[in-house]
Amino acid sequence: MKIAALLGLVLSISLAAPVAQATPPAAPVPLAAFFDNADFGEAVLSPSGKFLAAKVGGADRREGLAVVDLSQISIQVVARFADADVDHVQWVNEDRLLFDTIDKRIGVGDRRFAPGMFAVDRDGKNFRQLVNRNPGFIQSAGAARLLPWHTYMMGQRGAQNSEYVYVRSQKMDGPGELRYEELLRLNTRNGHVTSFGRPADTRSWMLDDKGEPRLTWGHEKGVQTIYLREPDGEKSSWRKLASFNAYGVAKQGFDPLAFGPDGTLYVVSYHPGNDKKAVHTLDLATGQVSVKPLIELDGFDFSGHLIFGRGKLLGIRYVREARDTLWLDPDMKQMQAEIDAKLPNTVNLLTVPSRPETPNVLVRAYSDRQPAVTLIYNSESKTFNKVGDSRPQIRAAEMGGQRFLRYKARDGLEIPALLTLPNDKEGQKLPLVVLVHGGPWVRGNSWGWDANAQFLASRGYAVLEPEFRGSTGFGARHLQAGFKQWGLKMQDDIADGAKWAIAEGVADAQRICIAGASYGGYATLMGLARNPELFKCGINWVGVTDIQLMYSGHWSAISDLSEQWKEYGMPQLIGDPEKDAEQLKATSPLLLAARIRQPLLLAYGGADQRVPIYHGTKFRDAVKAHNKDVEWVEYAEEGHGWALPKNRIDFWGRVEKFLDRNIGTGASRSDQGQSAPPVK
Does any domain span residue 518? Predict the structure, then answer.
């Protein structure tokens, strides 16, 4: 019997190649297929590979935790709640699991419970709550033995050879104000806990290959300090390994990546003469980064992780245009080739058990048209067993193709970008949505299926996603070129992307809309103000509307931007509120609101602490004084983005109608309205 059938999942997706010129469906793919919660998410192999832990739900049931015996293909649901869904899952050892919870039916603003933490045996026995879910001062009966609500799971799996795990306890001084993070050693059977000890107000930890704490680091006055503990040292025997500027200077310092089985510390760092981040080793005695990189990616900063097994480095998982794997181990290289031959139309990411005793390998397959599908591959029988489809309603043959490209900005800087085209519209001048990512100091998307881009493509729009200067992942020069360039050269890069699409014959020059969230929302408003001849409409959700408001805040709202970030990070990367005051005024959408006359859709979350809603209300009131075509929507329970499917579906339904009116089939090609002149 198929695993997916046992888990109650639909088996409709095919991994066959999509039809290049498929006949368009009679009706567009429904919004829910893109924006409902995924049907299947996390699945984790046990250390031996004999068992699979997976989250299972249903139409009217909360998402629970199930364990599949892969030898018998039998399933047991080991945990389910009436008021919460299972969230993160780890194997403590071969027989025991650790997990926390989330409530997927309410927004951030309505949440009253912390994630908590629970452990259970793989046969459903010896269930134990370890962490309190109630953040209040009054605890329920029996809660005195629980760890406090601000205790969380580690992202690292640990040794997986005892009843113990390490967990994090965060001490906060307010939203965004982490004072320190303490590391605790927790027995998952009896709840006994001990503190590991810390050298300072540290904020993050790294375990070594044996699952023991070796590194910790924190920030103070804009300086990041990393501390090292010797493998046989006492809990409190930490020594300073390195210190460097935490913000601004891209080529300083390093990011710890992993400890190898032999004790080698691998780090990600820039090296003099190399513009891209690469994987190096670090001399633990001197704190010096190796001169020669171990792994470097042509044209990209290294982003990813190392894969260890059988006492050695097996391979490297990385992100270039797409996510992929380089295997150093000959056996794994051969297995990857076998799987790729069987699934030639997808990127196939393999996960091996930490101590394999079976031929079972977890495979996550995806492409630009195909949402992720999870399978178990038996390396002896060379067969697959499908575990689950993330979005079974999506048919790859109906999705649009996506490609990674680079275009030149007006000053010659190359701008990476993703271009997604509707399935049957190659080579036509199309209405275009320029979709701007948030951050801005992050990478947007890598090549692969994306709900936002594919939804827009399914409605007939080309979608351009520029990695404007200041985006990470493309080298120090590209990152630093964006410092203090909000609304200036970063904005030029976005406009130049739209102009490139026009010149290439991709976009209809009279039907271009700009859209984005957070920083992308800010860029949307600045694009409308600076380039009204180019952008005919705009969609901003949870976007910054004035940089000075990020510094000053507002008496009626709480922001999660830390004071350290405001004092040491923002002045270097965005602009100093005093020294750069005139520049910040000139690049304030709020102060330029009178210039924006194009149709505009604004959406904000009432519980947003990253960009509090006063950013939206102040701008709405200012722009409506001069622009009668402004649509406003507030999702009172949402934070910085839409957590609830009903709100995602509602929002993108509004987007669909808005675009259709302004640049789609419902738009009047002869009446585009009048725009203000460009900002000089």
Answer: yes
